[in-house]
Write a structure and sequence with these properties.
Blueprint: H1 23-35, E1 40-44, H2 50-58, E2 63-68, H3 71-83, E3 90-94, E4 105-111, H4 126-136, E5 137-150, H5 156-161, H6 174-183, E6 186-193, H7 196-216, H8 223-241, E7 245-254
Parallel strand pairs: 1-2, 1-4, 2-3, 4-5
Antiparallel strand pairs: 5-7, 6-7
Length: 260
């Protein structure tokens, strides 16, 4: 894996997971998954595959595939797999998840990546993502879905402070999200949501290395555009979705389909 250029802003080096997920919650989620004894695991939008690698460590008989379109993250995942002696049991593949034929498997991880299963020319629809996840998992198999929901209906001012074009119908409520999972052919075995502390750890960790780099390199040719991007991201959180956008972690069991 090529070492990052120290003269450039670092990328996500202070994050263990690419989302508001604590070590304790990750351990509980993976413990429940490993207890089901999966033989094969698919990670949608895997990034560097930290959860996938930990699941393979917890389930020694399992093999895994992680798919993503970010080559840098995938290279980081391959390096981590080598370090942990897992390279022979996992593949990190650079490809789109849209319409993927890599199922059905015993377990699917899809944390913050449901949009990868949907038409990119249409608004993200968790119902579509859930139907695709059901297609990708065997009856009785498990899916861990990390998906956004509104803690409450956002105000116009909060929407204006979020991402460009943010709308009140961008996300469902938690109850509506769980109903969509049931409608797609799952039973919600475990329902949990990211805490305020997990959000703060993620949001600060997401920018930490870049903020430190900016403080040390204020006149770097890339400093101005980097500063503008990071300030916009931070503002979107603090002035927009903080306390409004939640992340649900749903452990879903695929309902067996009766034979005709």
């Amino acid at each position: 894996m090529t070492s990052p250029d120290p003269a450039l802003p670092p990328r996500l080096g202070s994050l263990t997971f690419h989302g508001p997920l604590s070590e304790a919650r990750a351990a509980r989620i993976l413990g429940r998954l490993a207890a089901a004894g999966p033989a094969d695991v698919l990670d949608i939008g895997c990034g560097w595959g930290e959860l996938l690698l930990r699941l393979l460590e917890a389930a020694p008989g399992a093999e895994g595939v992680g798919i993503d379109i970010n080559a840098e993250d995938l290279a980081r995942g391959r390096a981590l797999a080598e370090e942990r002696g897992l390279a022979g049991r996992v593949a990190f593949v650079e490809e789109s998840a849209l319409g993927t034929g890599r199922g059905p498997v015993d377990a699917v991880l899809c944390l913050g990546s449901g949009q990868a299963l949907c038409d990119p020319d249409l608004p993200h629809d968790p119902a579509v993502a859930l139907r695709e996840l059901r297609r990708l998992v065997r009856p009785g198999g498990r899916v861990v879905l990390g998906e956004g929901f509104w803690e409450r209906t956002p105000t116009e001012a909060e929407l204006a402070g979020m991402w460009p074009g943010a709308r009140a119908d961008d996300h469902p409520s938690l109850g509506a999200l769980v109903d969509l999972a049931i409608g797609a052919g799952f039973r919600p075995a475990w329902i949990e949501t990211a805490s305020a502390e997990e959000w703060e750890e993620f949001e600060s960790g997401y920018r930490y290395d870049t903020e430190v780099w900016l403080a040390a390199n204020p006149r770097h040719p890339l400093a101005a555009e980097t500063r503008e991007r990071v300030d916009r991201q931070r503002s979107g959180w603090l002035n927009g979705y903080r306390g409004v956008l939640g992340i649900a972690y749903l452990t879903l069991v695929a309902v067996a389909v009766a034979e005709d």
